[in-house]
Amino acid sequence: MTNLTRREFIRRTRVLAGGAYPAMMAMGLVPAAPAHPFRLEGSGDGKEVVILGAGLAGMAAAYELDKLGYRCTILEARERTGGRCWSVRKGATNEETGGGLHTAGFDAGQYFNAGPSRIPHHHGLTLHYCKELSVPIQVYNNVNENTYYYSEGKGPLSNKKVRVREAHSDVRGWMAELLAKAMDGGKIDVEMSKEDTLKVIEYLRAEGGLDIDKLYKASARRGYSESPGPGDREGKIGEPMTLLAMLQSGLLDPDFYNVAEYTYELQGTLFQAVGGMDRIAAAFEQKVGRLIRMGSEVRHIRNLEKGVQVGYKDKTGEKTMQADLCICTIPLPVLSNIDHNFSSDASRAIDSIVYMSTGKIGLQFKRRFWEEDEGIYGGITHTNNQLTQIFYPSYDYLGGKGILIGYYNFNEKAVATGNLTYEQREQLALEKGSLIHPQYRQEFERSFSVSWHKTKYNMGGWALYSADERQTLYKALLQPDKQVYFAGEHMTYLNAWMAGALESARSVVAALHSRVTGQRFSYPVFGS
After folding, report:
1. How many CB atoms lie within 10 A of CB 38?
2. Where is 505: in which H helix or E strand?
3. CB–CB of 278/21 below 8 Å?
4. What pLDDT, on a 0 to 100 scale, did the predictor assign at position 16?
5. Which of 163, 322, 377, 388 meets the CB 3.0–4.6 Å disulfide criterion with 409?
6. Predicted confidence (pLDDT) per residue in 141-183, tens digit
7. b/e per residue, 157-188, with b = 16+ CB within 10 A?
8. Integer Rg of the chain from CA
9. Euclidean distance between CA atoms 302 and 308, whole angstroms
10. pTM
11. How far apart are CA 366 and CA 443, in angstroms?
């Protein structure tokens, strides 16, 4: 790199995905983050720690413990790392209960994120590890006003594609009109002066696009029915949908109308790893891969008077190992069926905590028709049918082929979809998706689906807690059960996020190291 010319640098930067910063990182021109940002004093003095699971939590824990001088062994049941941090590529396999083995036949270079696909800007630890492990990131387009709402039903707007911008503009407009009229007529009892009331009304005019009479009329905010262009083509603005029509068509149903951009987790800016989220898992594996025993299915966990014993099965047969301490990151629905001698409180929590039923399907198409024909670059289409959501890729824009996520569903819809065969899921995605994109049938090539609640070694998407369970079941697992510590997204308030796994790993490492060294480390602990 020391002899790299300016011309060659520009040429390489152009061909690397993700913009200038990832390009520079990929070429080694950006130094990595400090090696020890998580600063804990003292040494592990070679104490042995067995870590159950090579997902993000397990590998992150091993990565930090390894720095401190612990001897770690990671037992991973699969032949891959990452757990739910998984990008499905050509040749990938998955085994579901009752469904058998499923193999992805995507073209080389094509992929979709079957697990996490987004990194919020405020998930600092996830971004920190991306920087420390030299994983380039790029912007993820989560909110796209050019995607669709599609509501099946009998309303006047049902079974029609409605652009998100049209729905958002019309709802804001009608609601602002109602509120402005009510305030102007004194029908809302608020402790405001007349001057303050007028200021609020002016805000509502701006927010809802109201005219001087506080009436909503469609504007360019909601797009054009005929686009503006050269000459005398000023463009034509369509008529707004009435609030009643939207209500009758289900477009305002609380489980359908989407305001995801309002939620803290999904507020911009969002990121993704360049080339797939599994790049994060691969980066951890590069650091701790020597510690991992793949294909090692845990059969029992025993707290001993001193230390812990773990029985597991690999391709050569049944084995056991002992260690001083254990970090268990196995998802609780799986752990519930593993023989152990944990306390009654821990056992009750493990058996009781419910996980989300959820599934995704990746659909590979011959061309990116959603971009070429409909101007959709990233974002999500929302439906009230079994698909729930269609995700458009936020990478490789203007490329050739592409994979979109044909459904991302939850709860009862995910259970019903998961009960179908792989072929039936594909047909469901094509049938329902064709209602929105008639190009589906002609452009479709192949699919791969994952029902996480039926996937071996996961049996669910992420942990779900009620307020009461946070005070009982959750707290029972926050403390170690003798020599066994529990870690994973289920041991945080960041359920379903990679940040949950990573924050949990660091928290457990701090607690375990405090125990070994006799020093008190509170979490979070960051270096200077």
Report:
1. 22
2. helix 498-517
3. no
4. 42
5. 388
6. 999 999 999 999 999 999 999 999 999 999 999 999 999 999 8
7. bbeebbbbebbbbbbbbbebbebbbebeeeee
8. 26
9. 6
10. 0.91
11. 5
